[in-house]
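quick one, 692 residues, struct below
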Amino acid sequence: MDLVGDRRGQSIQIGAILLFAVLIIAFASYQAVVVPNQNRGVEFNHNQQVQSDMQDLRNAIVSGRGTGEDRSVSVQLGTRYPSRLVARNPSPPSGSLNTVGTTDESVALQISNAQAAGSNARETGDFWNESQTYNTGGLTYRPNYNVYADPPATTYEQTALYNQFPTGNITVSDQSFIDGTDISLVAINGSVSASSTQATSVDVRSVSSSTQRVSLENDSAEPINITFTSQRSAAYWDDLETSQPNVTNVTSTPSGNGFYNVSVELERGETYDLQLTKVGVGSGVTKEDTAYLTDVDGDGASVTQGETTELTLEVRDRFNNPPNDAAKTAVYAQADTGSLDRLSRTPDSDGQVTFEYTAPESGTPETAVNFSYVSSDAANATAFNAETVQNVSMTVDVTASSSGGGGGGGGAYSLNWADPEPDNTNAVLSDCTASGCTWDVGGSSDSTLTLRVGTVPALEGFGVEFAGDDSTVGSVLTTDTETDADGEATTDFNASENGTVGVYAASGGASDLFNLTVENVSSGGGGGGGGGSGQALEPVEDTVTSNYGGNDNYRMTFDIENTRSTAVTAVNFSVDDFANQGASTKLDNGNSDEMRIGGATTIARNGNTNADGTTYEFASNGGADITIGPGEQVEVWFRYFEKDFGDLDFVDNQADADLEVTIGLSDGTVQRFYFAALLTGRGPGGRSPSVS
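---
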């Protein structure tokens, strides 16, 4: 059979080729059109989700006002496309979330032309008297999509959330920092920088917040202005003029780097309630310390002679909230007349502190009570300046008692404490008056303090009772006695813990209060002698060694222990030869490293040292300050004395000592160690003339 020229199979082959071509075209169209459209939808939906996440983040920041609660918000930075059997997806889209301006001091929030108003304006006005500036910033999310063209960047700043498009901005959540006369501003601190296809968690921490509001009014010349840095010009904030009746004008000027300084002017003659909050996001969040002291309640109170009233104050940070260091802050007090239940108090968690003031039985009709959070000296009349932020002066009007009684209880005689300094020559005292005193127990050679009270007029044989109001600080050793021929009676006070105690004396219907502040009492309670009772560094028993070092040079070593729960730093020392008054005693044999603390490698001082009580700073002559950890025992080592003290032993006070070694700490306290020389015919309890 002749098959040449037969074409019967060609149509099948052509059909198969055409069908394959159709499939290729369909797949290409699916890959080029359908897949991008579907992925665009995925990206768009993700953008809607991330805007919702940013809304949650904005709410967490704004809700920090007054609540003080910490929150964590998850932001889905990127997304993933659906899996495909044949078609291919591009790499998953990512996004980034970053703080903007929080580390740039020029990106700030300022309140200007504002002064304190209301009942506490006088003291709060020491801080709020013109303007205050706070660093702040915003948070911006930027997507990195494959298909969705020109997606918005979503930004939070000044309580508002908005989308930034190439052609303009669209608000997602409106501002809430001003509502009528209520102003609620939030400053952001910290740094966030995250870029991923996954979710990231943003911790929003409350740094400074409370429900506290401060009343402000404009000064006499200009209206209050709130100025802040924004990526949006005034055109996007001018709705404040129409939505807020007290906003009179909104302007902006470019500040560089794509930012504007937006200024919101407020109506004059109004009183505005300001609430300030600081929140931290991410890392590098800073705390807020005490910025000013103000009065809360009791200023101008009226009290009858001999009666008591409460005076309440508050320490605040620059956001008008309880500071982070409130627990470490002490408020000191002093009254011109009358008495206070304490000379110092530590604020509570709300930053508040309350003193009880007792009016004198007789005296001036108005009393000033001074307060300070800086130092006890600042509360003294000679150093006090009520116009500074750390000081507050409150007045109390004292009215005459209806019974017309005299001092000390209004009876036939009064009872009054005396200044304790004349009775306590071996005690280190400061700020002493007839109503109070500060006693440095660690720096004193006696562990008890004599307190004297007298009747006016002087009455002999009248019973007097003594009592303290805080047994943890210490106790009176004599609780019941009688007045002598001079109308006076005494008791001794024994200290056991740092603090302030009220010591009361009562006789018949008369009474008086003495406020004693006890300082430098360690938890060790004395540690076995060798220094003032209760100092931070206590001697370790039976560790004194004295030996011959050759060439008429004599070494001395002893161990001390830090009895505090925190480390202390030694910065200076002195040696005093009581027996020879330092006239011929030195630490000098031509060698260096004469005094060490804590080991042979820790040199405290090089060079000649006189044993005449001269204080030598460690850092001034080749040495270095020495840190001693809590509970740590270290060796104190001297080489060499040009004098033989023989064997040495610890004694409890200066009166029994031949040699004194002091070590000064960085907190200003002095640690004292006393030694007796045990030469032939010599024992503790008195100096021997053979020691020379």
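Residues 91 and 146 are 8 Å apart (CA to CA).
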